[in-house]
Amino acid sequence: MLNKRIVMLLLCAVCADPLLAETAATPIDAVRVVVNDDVITRLELAQRMQTVVQQLQKQGTQLPERGILEKQVLERMIMEKLQLQFAKENGVRVDDAQMESALQRIAQQNKFDSLAAFRSKLEKDGIDFARFREEIRGEILSVRLR
């Protein structure tokens, strides 16, 4: 009877270990700020910070202190969320054809022959195209709301 308990405990320990290891390796994305019914997570802020830092470095601009830059980026993200919420409430939207046209224009302005080549360059530079696309959508909505 005692041997069965020891075997069961060992079996449980062996089976649980991979589960614990997997859980420990998975980072939790915590909420950084609540904006009405929406949130900005720490991961979203970190990704936006990375993008902004890359852009500033590419332009040769001196980076402000990290805390100041993070505050500015977070404030901008909050304003974007508020604008997107306002646009949604008022039926202002950007359809797929308008998005495609805007992305084509951006690709041409950056001297790319095609949107595919532009997308490839963005991804090579570590910029997620889907996220880039949504940022452009937000910019278009922002302009329309003014």
Number of strands: 2
Q: Determine the mean pLDDT.
A: 83
The total of helices stands at 6
The fraction of residues in strands falls at 5-15%
N-to-C terminal Cα separation, in Å?
77 Å
Helical content band: over 70%
Main-sheet strand order equals 1-2
Order of helices and strands: HEEHHHHH
Biggest sheet, open or closed, and with what strands and sense? Answer: 2 strands, antiparallel
Shape, principal axes of CA atoms: globular
Compute the CA-based radius of gyration: 23 Å
Structural class of the secondary structure composition? mainly alpha
Which regions contain 5 or more consecutive residues with pLDDT less than 50? 6-24
Q: What does this 3D model show about the protein?
A:
Helix content is 73%, strand content 6%. The protein has a two-stranded antiparallel sheet with strand order 1-2. With 146 residues, the protein is mainly alpha-helical. Strand 1 and strand 2 form a beta hairpin. It is built from 6 helices and 2 strands, in the order H-E-E-H-H-H-H-H. Among the domains are: 31-90, no CATH class; 96-133, no CATH class.
Short description:
This protein has 146 residues and is mainly alpha-helical.
List keywords for this structure.
globular, 73% helix, two-stranded antiparallel ribbon, mainly alpha, 6 helices, 146 residues
Write the layout of secondary structure elements.
Layout: H1 2-25, E1 31-35, E2 38-41, H2 42-59, H3 66-89, H4 96-109, H5 115-124, H6 129-145
Helix pairs in contact: 2-3, 3-6, 4-5
